Amino acid sequence: MTELPSGWATARLSDVCDINPRVDKSAFEPDTVVSFVAMPAVEAKTGKIDVSETRTFAQVKQGYTPFRKGDVLFAKITPCMENGKMAIVPKMVNEYGFGSTEFHVLRPAEGMEPKLIYHLVSNQGFRYHAEHNMTGAVGQKRVPAAIIEEHELGLPPTKEQRRIVEKIEAMFDEIDKGVESLQTARTTLGLYRQSLLKSAFEGRLTADWRAQNADKLEAPETLLARIQAERDTRYKAALDAWQDALSQWRADGEKGRKPAKPKRPRDIPAKATDIGIHGWTMMPLGLLIDEPAYGTSKKSDYDGGSKGVLRIPNIAAGVIDATDLKSSNFDEAELEQYRLIEGDVLTIRSNGSLSLVGKPALVRPVDTQFVYAGYLIRLRPIAGSLVPKNLVYLMMEPTVRGQIENKAKSTSGVNNINAKELQELQVPICSADEQSEIVCILDARLEAADALEAEIDAALTRADALRQSILKKAFSGHLVPQDPNDEPASTLLARIKAERLNLADGRRPKKARTTKQKETANGV
């Protein structure tokens, strides 16, 4: 520890806090109402704690952690540590409350500011030390009590503790105001994106383009007929290619795998609909894409084989992100079945989070080296009918997004959408030329929004760093000036130690006196 300011002292947390103190449960009646704090009742970022839930003492007397007003709760289990859960216990319905066993309880001694202890355990240095000294199985590691007990800190005098806390909170309040403004701006950006996508597929972004290209616009019936013809032509071309491959396979003595006959596209009824935009109509997505294809069910792992397998984590914001990639081995038939080409769109078909189901990502040339896993569906746009990037934007558009969520919503906890349901999505469509114009406009405007969001995120990161810088100054004695008239921390430590000894003596049972001791006491 660096040299401490005048009046400070070196101490361990256990010198100034009772760690996980017990409570005399015999003082409670079974029907006594107490506050109960489960892990979700503590907010990770803010330290806010909800103590409104109540239970009877009979319900909590076994296996729950006791605490009282002014105690500092610190989550000891891995996920909660990563989320930063800690809080100061406020006033409750009773003197004592109970909560999750995954909390450590730090009870500041008299003369210690609870908020100082709270800020200490939220300090990055303390958290780093705690997280790197966890014990237990992976995924369920915990911070041992000893790590907290033995942690050394520079201890300021009591009055300086109060000045430090006041200064921290004043500075944090200013940071919070800035963060609130940044988060509001971030929310506004999200609304702007949704509004932009809605405008795009209501034809408003390309109104000028249509005015300049009126001769290229098709009536709804003409547009639908052309798209149906393109679908039929695509199937016929695939059928012709299969027949050629089959003939060649037979000519070669039927060696190798027999070419698979292409599946006839599902019959999808459609009616040309005038939606009030010249050159546009509404139709099922299935008319604009090949038959959707599910991914491989083969198990993959990190360094699990020679072929990368795209999974749900690889579906980013409209693009493939291959940084967290697993792999497996596949034979030639499997590689052909799960092959990706430029312009394919992968979407998530099943997830516990409804907002992720139907999330799309465009396959770029660099992504064609991979295959894709079973929780994904491949959508392949028909050239001339649907521009691939336009499909990505369509699946993000609020109205289409609403259709996806309505089809996928489940009460079982896992939300799903299947190939048939995707084909049935009703989407607004225009000519491929106008689609390209839509993509061009959206790319430019959303890129600007993304750049602004990146600046906001960077500012939020700086705000977090500033908080940590303030805490570092606070616990090194550089945040507020020292006052030579303050009672030194060494005196505070001595008083806490003496009070603990007196309390221990009061609790220590007296030993039974021997006969000789009794005779001496009676003057015999």
Which tags fit this structure?
single chain; 5-stranded mixed beta sheet; 22 strands; elongated; 4-stranded antiparallel beta sheet; 16 helices; 524 residues; alpha+beta
Structural class: alpha+beta
Stretches where pLDDT is under 50 for at least 5 consecutive residues are 510-518
H/I helix tally: 16
Range of strand content: 5-15%
Largest sheet: 5 strands, mixed
Q: What's the arrangement of strands in the largest beta sheet?
A: 12-20-16-18-14
Shape: elongated
Tell me the span between the first and last alpha carbons: 59 Å
Compute the gyration radius: what is it?
34 Å
Strand element count: 22
Helix content: 40-55%
Overall residue-averaged pLDDT value = 92
3D structure, described in words:
It is a single chain. With 524 residues, the protein is α+β, with helices and mostly antiparallel strands. The protein is built from 16 helices and 22 strands. The chain has helices spanning 13-16, 57-60, 78-83, 114-121, 124-131, 145-149, 158-200, 207-212, 220-251, 332-337, 388-396, 398-408, 419-423, 432-474, 489-507, 515-521; strands at residues 9-12, 17-19, 33-37, 54-56, 65-68, 72-75, 86-88, 96-99, 103-108, 152-155, 281-284, 293-294, 307-310, 318-319, 326-328, 345-348, 350-351, 360-362, 371-372, 376-379, 415-416, 426-429. Helix 7 runs antiparallel to helix 14 (432-474). The protein is elongated, with a radius of gyration of 34 Å. It starts with 8 loop residues before the first strand and ends with a helix.
